[in-house]
């Protein structure tokens, strides 16, 4: 459905997108993760047609997204900004924004009512938006992007600055939109949102996709392992000796003073053997945890721990 | 077609937001009305003429020609009050000297003194003065036709010469016969001033706010192009000026009997002027990032242009140097055209230069605004 190839965009000397490429299928929900300045918003802006002076191509539904303006009728965008009219009611906002697309008026009214129902704003449809809470505004912001039943929906941090309930509601909407066959790309800093919402994850930094796939695929790609954390009273030398020669296990941390040790294992099936060795050598183990690599560990592994502006 | 529909959709929404704003009616109607009343009263005319204009005649003539002459002056709209000596108070007065008849009969020139009280109706004075000239022309005409005969015997017969001369007075073409009211100046003047102020403030601030909020950028997510979005914004602000003008003109017509001369041409002038101001508002809104700056600029520009351009007082009464400087103000070209239409009974041909200059200004400002127009900071 969407095929982006070698998209490159610079702001002066700063390379915001560096030969960025990505494919997206119908109904796929892609979470685009990246630290600040990774190029996420630049990508959304280029795809949505509000940013120029770039190179590369994007094919959408088999046509050139950047050349065929009619494709915008098939593309929905939810910006990070609450970009609508506070003075108007939710219904009037939907009718205004929907009026920019080739949607017949009667159908638009029906669609607006449906969406207000979907984002749970029907009861306050006629009230000026300026009276709405942040979460209600975010829901309206999302609904505007869905008015014309797009085949591709781009969302730029759609859950920023709202409470948990509103966040859950928006993520439910994204899931339902994807389930209905719309391809979705959404950018966020919230790793948990991506884990629970997306069928595919792309991690980008410095304008490039570093890795993409399901969470399991990403873990495999970056070579991240499960970690066995062991607490107890043991001498460092004795612990090292106990786990020496243990295939598929690697000591990551060993602090006898703190009574802590971490072992990276290729397979959690190794855990009973590790514990057996420790007990055989009569090391006093008081606690043991297995930590499975999550998106955060993958993300940090790929993008590093240094702070970004 | 869809493009035009989208442009009108955006422009219409801008107008709807403006009209829906409670402050709009205060700044576009209530506040301008205060200006209209203030300047309308300052420049009001001296009032209408009385139905019958009085003329006091100090008749000192010792002969019979004075009575004959006064008979010629009489009319339903001129009332003669004949006295023997100059009274202390009068509105208009003419003195017929003791030798009035003698000089006529001797065919000798003579001067008649006609006096007007300073604050008396100018219209009534003009009517009496016209009647006096008619009477003089008729008497002189009869004397000339009578030929070399004895004028002392003219009044004893010779009925054939009575009223043999008819005198008709006509104003030269395009002469103003009805004095325009002060409101005929103050309503267009205030309208032009407030179009400048409100279109720049409201139009500029909303362009800036929409850009900062991401509303303009969001519009480009739709099939609307940046050029079409600019046209829509220009159109919306043009509509703001027109709506304001129509409201003030209609209210002015109802409350103050506003006469624009030619209403369609006056609206055309306002339309072209509003277009120039709409372009200026988009330009200012695209450049500025703070509301205070736009308001400050708008108030400053609107007041300078209004004062200089003849919105507050007719530019015809200012010294020539100031009038030349006024040509730098867009308001001057609008007000000058409106004055030509109302005060000098002008037609389309008389305001072509004004329309041309305002159109050129709109085109230049439009081009500059289109270049400066941006959807993101």
Characterization of the model:
The complex is a heterodimer of chains A (309) and B (377). Chain A is built from 10 helices and 14 strands. The two termini of chain A are 34 Å apart. Helix content of chain A is 33%, strand content 29%. Chain A has a 6-stranded mixed sheet with strand order 6-7-8-3-9-10, sandwiched between helices. A 4-stranded antiparallel sheet of chain A has the order 2-1-4-5, with helices on one face. Chain A has a 4-stranded antiparallel sheet with strand order 12-13-11-14, with helices on one face. Chain A has 2 domains: 220 residues, Rossmann fold (3-Layer(aba) Sandwich); 68 residues, Alpha-Beta Plaits. The model of chain A has no long low-confidence stretch (mean pLDDT 89). By secondary structure, chain A is of the alpha/beta class. Chain B is mostly helical. Chain B folds into 2 domains: 236 residues, no CATH class; 109 residues, abc type-2 transporter like domain (abc type-2 transporter like fold, 3-Layer(aba) Sandwich), CATH 3.40.1710. Chain B has 13 helices and 4 strands. Chain B has a 4-stranded mixed sheet. In chain B, strand 1, helix 3 and strand 2 form a beta-alpha-beta unit. In chain B, helix 1 crosses helix 8. The longest helix of chain B is centred in the middle third of the chain and has 32 residues. Chain B is elongated, with a radius of gyration of 30 Å. The two termini of chain B are 31 Å apart. The chains are: A alpha/beta (309), B mainly alpha (377). At the A-B interface, strand 6 of A face helix 1 and helix 7 of B.
